[in-house]
Amino acid sequence: MNTLPQPIYPVVDSAQWVRRLGQAGARFIQLRVKDRPQAELLEEIRSARAIAEALGVCLVLNDYWQLALDEGISYIHLGQEDLDTADLAAIRRGGLKLGVSTHCPEELDRALSCAPDYVALGPIWETRLKKMAFGPQGTDKLTVWKKQVGETPVVAIGGITLERVRPCLDAGADCVSAVSAFTSHPDPEGQVKAWLAAAGC
After folding, report:
1. What does the alpha-carbon distance between residue 196 and residue 155 come to, in Å, rounded to a whole number?
2. Span of the secretion signal (predicted)?
């Protein structure tokens, strides 16, 4: 049976955020670094990996699967567009765990064909973080998809706040993920603790 390290899953853009949220108790964190020069990108990834290892955090690297292999990071997250160019055979040979973003039944089918370690469904609610081609899915969709995927963990993402953690988990999500709910909050460490409490940890 596939299991995730923790039912909360912050997404951050720097090693410093990995440190802050990891020290607060988060144990499953995605590093999503975009539009950085290669040298800066490598430095950020290496720093985040070292911090994660020291804190006992399972670090997930967004997009850069080859760098994950090269730098000893064991978990990656790919969007649908990333699947177009990713070498899934190399990813599996390297022993990487894989999470995949999904937004519709066709994308879910594609993700499941990759034998992922989790699928992320979103946006559950409206999100302002980035423009989405898909409207809010709602918690009812979580219930439907969880029944469809069976033991594959489902991560809910998109517009999730502290008050929405429990409804997502009760609807069938195995994990809830967010970016701004942590990094834009005046007390990010307090949010980690509050989300963990809401998730029953």
Report:
1. 15
2. none
CA pair distance 179, 9, nearest whole angstrom: 9
**Which CATH number goes with the domain that contains 106?**
3.20.20.70
- Where the chain has pLDDT below 70, the residues are 1-2, 128-134
**The domain containing residue 111 runs over which residues?**
8-198
Q: Rounded CA gap, 184 and 57, in Å? A: 21
**Which residues are catalytically annotated?**
32, 101, 130
Distance between CA atoms of residues 46 and 54, nearest Å:
12
Instruction: Measure the CA–CA gap between 16 and 94, rounded to whole angstroms.
Output: 27
**Greatest Cα pair distance in the chain:** 43
Residue type present at position 178? A
The number of distinct structural domains making up the chain is 1
**Counting beta carbons within 10 angstroms of the beta carbon of residue 62, is it exposed (0 to 12), middle (13 to 18) or buried (19 or more)?**
buried
Q: Say which DSSP state 4 is in.
A: -
Q: What contacts 86, CB < 8 A, 6 or more positions away?
A: 65, 78
What pairs with residue 61 in β-bridges?
A: 31, 76
- Establish if 41 belongs to a structural domain: yes
> pTM for this one?
0.95
pLDDT of amino acid 136: 86
Q: Report the Cα 164 to chain-centroid distance in Å.
A: 17
